[in-house]
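For anyone still unconvinced, we reproduce a single protein record, the chain in one-letter code, the fold tokenised, and leave readers to judge:
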Amino acid sequence: MQAMLSADDLTRLPDSELLQRASKGDEAAFVTLYRRRQGSVYRFALRMSGSEAIAEDVTQEVFLALLREAARYDAARSSLASYLFGIARNQVLRRLERERNYTPLPDNYEDEEASTLQAVENPLGDLTRQETIEAVRQAVLALPPHYREVVVLCDLHELSYLETAEALGCVVGTVRSRLHRARALLGEKLRSLQTNNQMVKSKTEFSVLYEVPGI
């Protein structure tokens, strides 16, 4: 039988231990884990789908699946955060496929131009900050899902290439190449965000522009 721990003690436990306790019926451990990871899962689903309803459903499904199949998680293979993003990614893609609630660019979209980010005139220079944030969101949502997910995970959630590869079930080289291509496509979509002829490139700057108010 597991020893009962206080709420403070539970918050100090790593994800893997919380999951182990939750799988054995410790409701407080599950609540602690849920509160720790729910926000990032929801934001990922929202940024991938553009739909609050889908994000809420996916978040619920992710944690139900985690509890049902806790034994499938292997801490030696990935962090729990990456594992949860992987479940969320699969759930989101299934929902998008079913609802067709996205408008991806074709994979061959401006292949030559997308390889470099060029300084151009700012056609949306009078946009307010909120309008700029919305423009970034729509640009990310317009990416094909396999490019969108690497931008969301690497640039918005600031996961490492290795963590992203773990979440997506691919090799690090694939993450690197997709992210390079995705950023090039975004460069074409976001030329209105250039300042002094330089595209916003840093993860911090990009994350601020893509912030989700109230989350």
Observations:
- The first helix runs from residue 7 to 11.
- The chain has two domains: 9-99, 113-209.
